[in-house]
Write a structure and sequence with these properties.
Elements lengths: L2 H54 L2 H23 L1
């Protein structure tokens, strides 16, 4: 077997631990991204409902907007901390 071929077989084994660490880190960061995305989605829906409440002068929709906005804050903080 040629020497170059033997070396190319050993290279992936040597770096498999590094690859696994990077993959685990990528999974963790993607999970964090999804948590931020959920919080931002709640904020965006809250803003849209607030605009709708202002146009229709509906106090019930305004309260719903406030509740959604307030529920996005803990999600954002949890995503930031974890």
């Amino acid at each position: 077997m040629p020497r170059n071929r033997r070396r190319s077989r050993r290279l992936p084994r040597r770096r498999s631990g590094e690859r696994d660490e990077k993959s685990a880190e990528a999974d963790h960061l993607l999970h964090r991204h999804h948590r931020f995305a959920n919080a931002v989605a709640l904020f965006q829906v809250s803003i849209a409902l607030g605009a709708l409440a202002a146009l229709t002068r509906s106090r019930a929709v305004w309260w719903g907007s406030l509740l959604l906005g307030l529920s996005g804050i803990p999600l954002f903080v949890l995503a930031f901390l974890g």
